[in-house]
Design brief:
- By secondary structure, the protein is mainly beta.
- It has 2 helices and 62 strands.
- The strands form 17 sheets. Strands 47, 50, 51, 53, 58, 59, 60 and 62 form an 8-stranded antiparallel sheet that branches.
């Protein structure tokens, strides 16, 4: 019996072991109000499951396996008790020895209680699968008895009576890690080398009456996943192996469902240091979750066609995938993804544990609930299952996590197709008045865990009626700047603005009011920066937020990390603008946008410091939420106050000032790189202080502009600190090398 929405047999699945990790989401205010009707209308298609976790009972250990059907979810693993939602460990616990059954709609345990034990060692349930009719639950793992009835690493359970089948008994020599079930056959994957006293290396098949079948797909290494194709003609195999029946096919194979002979082999298809941890199917394809160890491995997911067993797509995120499941055209996965830069998504940073992709496209979809790593290895999620109940569809996740969406929750969690209750973050707003007679309202797009397209409403001067409404797309690693210009103002007037973000069902609170006076004349310094072609221009005029708005006109905004000191005065340049202060320990800012290598560029900024520990002032690096591993095109200060400009060009190439600039005064610092003959130049206070006309190249890699700190490992005269302690103002990046006359003109306008 096939599930019409998923193409999977009712709750049956191969073993899903998920590795995972937490990604600290960028800080954003969560104070909000909820309006509108309940339901999943706010979800961004094709996502059909909200990211809002539901109240669920917990385990005191790891959930390794699940199966679901007819509104019941079965969970197996290595645990001994259950406890209610929100209960702390040791509170209100009830026995549950490596197995429990739950009502899918309530998250509460049913009265089906089974105890999986072993005479020596640690018992564990590593695989669960339901028969197509839902009447029998098959369990595999490492155990010798169920409710005292002797078995050998595999058992069959009558789901109506919750009793062990006395007729299904066969000896399996070692742990069973995966199960798949048809009307008459049970397929096994695991560590074993014999079944029923006969040689079967890591894969086997038995009848539903526990008789060994001639099916032979002998593997040379551990088997971890097994799944039957929807037509029942073939079996999909996954694991650590390099050969099936003596033929080279690493980690993945398709075999005949009756004989076990190879239908499709995959030599060289998956990295030798990577394995297949889980396999799932829908009506048109099958999907693998992959884990790797070491450098250059494959950790992501692969989509393959059932028609020819060839690859449809693969993603190359790093952070081993261990659980995959399809619902309504979306592949949901559990992993510890920490670097998806190769997929055009987030760079290396703290781990994310739950992701979603279209079955037709590997691009990450806006669905980002999260767990932590938890106990055990630790890797977070290990398994997924799904079922419908009461008109809702439920996605369950099990593993070794101890938090879900930052709240305490161990071992189990669940999500549904509605209602959507998650509220978008409150927008971060900044105003600018660079053009006389108008106010530019700038804001950093918000974040919602299950919706990418959000609606923004701008409110002026305390009104409850929005003056402007627009939409924008954002995900946690890409929250671009939006801007609206209010021209219904007059010079000298002061106006305030607030903004809300809505997913269509839930609306954030209004942002704190920001006020600005309408300018009557153009400020000379910023006008010159813009006219000279700045592609990024951060004036540091924000209040308390994570948003550094871009005044260049290119919407090249930045994120501020760890709460630097905002609105420092006096600023470097005369006028209403302010500066920002960095603590020299962990505060910095980085560009929202990933930039390609700039062949020619200018870095311009103002600094004021008395530090004797040096630090990175502005630079170009490959990471955002931690120190970069590739870093150049930067300005830094040595411990003695001298300034250094460096690029990677056949090694670390630098020029440095002869004088010190840690005297507590504002200094204008500009670094340029042009073609051969112009090379590297470093200016301070309008004057050329150091140069090397022969260095015209820099490292060819994409990266993010960073201000206030980043890695300085390997650079000459490396200072004590990677981070700059002092004030910074008027930071600009140009896609050209400014001339000496342009630079001196900028410096001359400081009092304009």
């Amino acid at each position: 019996m096939m599930n019409g929405s998923t193409g999977r047999r009712g709750g049956g699945r191969g073993r899903v072991r998920a590795v995972s990790a937490a990604l600290g989401l960028l800080a954003g205010a969560l104070t909000a109000t909820t309006v509108g009707a309940s339901g999943a209308a706010a979800l961004t298609p094709p996502v059909a499951i909200t990211a809002d976790d539901l109240s669920t009972w917990q385990t005191n250990g790891i959930v390794w396996s699940m199966a679901a059907g007819d509104g019941v979810v079965y969970a197996g693993g290595t645990f001994s008790t259950l406890r209610p939602p929100t209960a702390t460990p040791g509170t209100n616990e009830q026995p549950a020895v490596n197995f429990a059954a739950f009502d899918a709609a309530t998250g509460a345990p049913t009265d089906c209680s089974l105890s999986f034990t072993i005479s020596s060692g640690t018992a564990t349930v590593r695989a669960l699968a339901l028969s197509p009719d839902g009447e029998t639950l098959y369990a595999g793992g490492q155990f010798g008895a169920v409710n005292g009835v002797g078995v050998s690493n595999i058992a069959a359970i009558d789901t109506e009576t919750c009793t062990v089948s006395s007729s299904f008994k066969i000896g399996v020599s070692a742990t069973v890690r995966g199960l798949a079930v048809t009307d008459d056959t049970v397929y096994l994957a695991g560590d074993f080398t014999t079944v029923g006293g006969q040689t079967r290396s890591h894969f086997a098949a038995v009848t539903t009456g526990a008789s060994l079948l001639p099916f032979t797909a002998n593997a040379d290494e551990v088997a971890r996943a097994v799944e039957v194709t929807p037509d029942g003609q073939n079996v999909l195999l996954g694991g650590d192996f390099f050969r099936i029946n003596g033929t080279n096919t690493h980690a993945l194979a398709v075999v005949d469902a009756t004989t076990g002979q190879l239908t499709k082999s995959y030599p060289g298809f998956i990295h030798n240091n990577s394995t297949v941890q889980d396999i799932t199917t829908d009506g048109a394809g099958f999907y693998t979750g992959n884990e790797g160890t070491g450098g250059g491995v494959f950790d992501g997911r692969i989509a393959l066609n059932l028609s020819d067993f060839e690859q449809r797509w693969r993603d190359t995120c790093l952070g081993a995938t261990q659980a995959v499941l399809v619902h309504s055209g979306v592949l949901y996965s559990g992993s510890h993804a920490h670097d998806c830069a190769s997929m055009g998504a987030f760079p290396d940073q703290p781990r994310k544990h739950l992701l979603a992709q279209s079955v037709d496209d590997p691009k990450l979809l806006p669905w980002f609930p999260d767990t932590n790593d938890g106990i055990g290895e630790p890797v977070g999620p290990r398994v997924m299952a799904q079922t419908g109940s009461g008109g809702r569809h439920y996605l369950w996740v099990g593993g070794e996590f101890t938090t879900v969406n930052t709240k305490p929750q161990q071992g189990l969690t669940r999500f549904a197709d509605g209602p959507d209750t998650g509220v978008p973050w409150v927008p971060n707003v900044s105003l600018s008045t660079l053009t006389p007679g108008q106010i530019d309202v700038n804001w950093q797009t918000s974040f919602d865990t299950d919706d990418g397209e959000l609606t923004y409403r701008i409110y002026k001067d305390g009104s409850n009626t929005p003056i402007h409404t627009t939409t924008g797309y954002s995900v946690f690693w890409d929250r671009p700047q939006l801007t609206w210009t209010d021209t219904d103002v007059a010079p000298g007037e002061t106006h305030s603005y607030r903004i809300t973000a809505s997913d269509g069902t839930n609306t954030s609170a209004k942002s704190p009011a920001q006020s600005a006076a309408v300018a009557s004349a153009t400020e000379a310094y910023p006008a010159r920066v813009r006219s000279d072609g700045a592609s990024l221009y951060w004036r540091w005029d924000e209040g308390v937020s994570t948003f550094a708005h871009d005044s260049s006109g290119h919407l090249n905004n930045g994120f501020m990390r760890n709460g630097p000191a905002y609105r420092q005065t006096p600023a470097a340049v005369a006028g209403p603008s302010t500066a920002i202060g960095f603590n020299g320990t962990d505060e910095y800012a980085y560009s929202n946008r990933l930039h390609t290598q700039p062949a020619r560029f200018t870095i311009e900024t103002w600094i004021k410091t008395t530090t004797t520990r040096g630090g990175k002032i502005v630079g170009f690096g490959n990471k955002t939420q931690q120190n970069s591993t590739r870093h150049d095109k930067h300005l830094y200060m040595r411990n003695d106050g001298r300034l250094v400009f460096g690029v990677q060009s056949g090694g670390a190439r630098t020029v440095a000032t002869s004088g010190a600039y840690n005297d507590g005064q504002w200094h204008h610092v500009v670094a340029t790189q042009g073609p051969l003959g112009q090379g590297m130049s470093l200016y301070v206070d309008g004057q050329l202080r150091a140069s090397n006309i022969l260095i015209s190249g820099n490292e060819n890699q994409p990266g993010y502009w960073r201000v206030g700190g980043d890695n300085l490992s390997g650079w000459p005269n490396r200072p004590t600190s990677n981070f700059f302690a002092g004030q910074i103002d008027e930071t600009a990046i140009y896609p050209t090398a400014l001339s000496a006359s342009q630079i001196s003109a900028h410096y001359a306008l400081r009092n304009g």
